[in-house]
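Dear colleagues,

I hope this message finds you well. In preparation for our joint manuscript, I am sending the Cytochrome c oxidase subunit I (Halopiger xanaduensis) sequence together with its predicted structure, so that both groups work from identical material. I would be grateful if you could confirm receipt.
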Amino acid sequence: MRNAYVDQFPAEAKVIKAAFWSSFLALAIGGLLGLVQALHRTDVLRFIESADYYTVLTAHGVLLAITFTIFFLVGVFTWAVTTSLERGVVDTRFTWSWYAMMVVGTVLVGVTIFAGFLEEPPSILGSELYADVLFTFYSPLQAHPLFYLGLVLFVVGSWLAGVDWFRTWWAWRAENPDERIPLPTFMVLTTTLFWYICTFGVALSILVFLLPWSLGVVDSVNPLLTRTLFWYFGHAVVYFWLMPAYMMWYIMLPKLSGGKLFSDPLARVVFVLFLLLSTPLGIHHQYLDPGIAEGYKFIAMTNTMFLLLPSLLTAFTVVASMEHGARQRGGEGYFGWLRALPWRDPVFTGMALAGLMFAAAGFSGMINAGMNINYLVHNTWWVVGHFHLTVGTAVALTFMAAAYWFIPQVTGKALWNRSVALGQVLLWFIGMTFMSNAMHRSGLFGMPRRTAEPQYENFAFEPAAGTVGEINAQVALGAAILTVSLALFLLNMIMTSFNGDGTSAAIPDNTYAGTLSGPEDAPAILDNLKLWTAIAIVLVIFAYTLPLASIVESGGLFGPGIDGRQLTLVPDTTTVLETVRGVIP
Ligand code: HAS
Ligand code: CU
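The corresponding structure tokens are as follows:
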């Protein structure tokens, strides 16, 4: 008898499958645009006008960082809740409705961004369809109202997904009043709670400021305020991407390694710490912003350093579990056990390589987080190197590796080709090593990010870096390898959906790792979600009330009023574009 997810939960499997395919579509388009811009700014091959660079960059950032990640993770979380509670969602119509809402939101966002490629974008609601605002979308850049509306629908869809997981858990709780929350559900619920806390900031920014401003209801906004509200959300969102990857490292890697999770209580502590600290540190993205006092930046830095702890605990617990597994399989010696790990399994190898990369990414994150060192790397290619290791590898590679396990689970079809899958995860690791290492290095020489023409006037990188040609070559080579890897991934996914139905031998059991120290060893207070949420909110209030108050005081809620007049700090986007077009031949 086969024990695949689709056999246990056929209705849920359909929604999860749809979410995965939405995610893969975003990955395909976003990934291809990544190649286009990497070749463009390294001057290796230019397909686009430099004036279109920001359209490409916005599509790349939004489709990969927001669409690909979040569609995949809502699928994974639905899987995790239903399998660990051993019950389906309360009503799959509700599940389909939040999925549909996210799709509509994505389509609106996508259409507005891609309209930027047209010579003459159509005019809707009185303004040109246009959204070259990058994935960070704060003012003074302005997008068409439909872009913001799409974002709102997407985020509200994700909120309803959270409601779905909570409802499922409440239904289970009514039937099992005395049991501990199963670990995967615990991870989903704590992540959902900090997602609610952090998205409050971005919802406020869009609904109160950006959307009315783009509709012409208000004349101006306070750019520092919308920036700060963005970053209130913008750091926590990175953990929204990371937590599903962590979840899979905790519940799948130990089993794939042949052993058990080292400690369930420690895993709970880790997720509680993320709930507490993911939001009150967003100002570490604004160390260089004038208008925020140093003291508030220092608080953000302190909280960031505290938040290294759960990742360091994760490194310890997950690697200890892998070692336990390897020793069960006969591994010996200080490091010899590494050879006993199942390196031929693409699911394992993809996730292990993603974890390895994340160890490096953690170091570049620590460097970003230091207030004084940040001055050296801020707005350079270093930061781009950092996030291609984090979201671009720790998260993306884990998701791709997991897909080799999930797609057979939710479709009942065996994976098309394991060797291609193994080659694919290796290629991702190699491509990213080239690209991200070169980006980090060039950032140290001041190579700016987010520009099609990275050279400064009167400043040549060549003598400063000595290596700009080599750096560009490495980035272009890395990007090309990543594209091949991506194509192989998509090919495998497509071919798998055409594969005949899988037998039980071809599809692994839908179960995850047991534990060496189980939930019975965890203090009951860890499961008190109300308590942790309350503390998390208090911390956010401490970290943000004073800086926000002073930003509003000095810059005005809707921008500075001088003699009763509103000073528009914000040039309209067409003027900016025309200036750019004028400068760039
Ligand atoms: Fe970051 C900028 C600080 C983590 C994403 N970050 C960014 C941006 C993105 C991003 C997208 O303080 C750019 C935003 C923009 O457009 O401007 N980041 C940190 C810190 C961490 C961190 C301290 N970032 C992430 C994660 C991301 C992400 C995760 C996405 C998923 N980041 C910053 C700062 C900036 C920043 C500043 C602003 C820079 C600027 O100036 O603009 C930490 O969370 C990192 C902690 C990680 C560790 C590593 C633990 C190691 C583990 C591996 C275990 C190994 C295994 C495998 C399992 C301490 C868990 C073993 C294998 C065997 C074979 C044995
Ligand atoms: Cu951050």
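For the figure legend, we might mention the following. The radius of gyration is 24 Å. The first strand starts at residue 123 and ends at 124.

With kind regards,
E.M.
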